[in-house]
Predict the structure.
Amino acid sequence: MSLPAKHLRAKFSRMDQASPVDWALIGTSVIPFAKALPDRLLEHLRLLDGDYSGFPITRLEHCLQTATRATQDGRDEEYIICALFHDMGDLLGTYNHADVAASVLEPFVSERNFWMVKHHGIFQGYYFFQYLGLDRNMRDQFRNHKWYKYTLEFCDKYDQTSFDPDFENMQLSEFEPMVRKFFSKPKRSIYLK
């Protein structure tokens, strides 16, 4: 009788000592972990609940409002996922939250949506950087970029408008089926053939 995969472990202390059998075991063990990514991402979003950080709504509500507005506007699934997860990096990347969110989304989204999420923090700054002594027009450094207007629209229509305590947003549970389906298969990764 064999042990469940979670109890089996490769037998090496350095990667250059690993055998094909070790890597086969690792490859088999990674599959259930990878399949649980949607659960981990949803749990990470739930951690944003209760964190107001001075805003009129929680960070989770902000993500839900942004995704709800994108849904109501008929945006495609990938765009809605980006809207839902665009600020997920706030917990771990206090000073670079957009980079954190973009890195998590990168294997699953188009280059255009990756760029939008990665740069939305700079574009969003148009609405408040002047109050922090920063240049609100910092986004203009990208004025000639092919996705400048696309990112500008995301921030103007969805991100900066989604701090409304009276807005009735969809619940996270309503997005769960989409999240589970979307994160089940990456489009690109160095770990894919």
The chain has a mean pLDDT of 93.
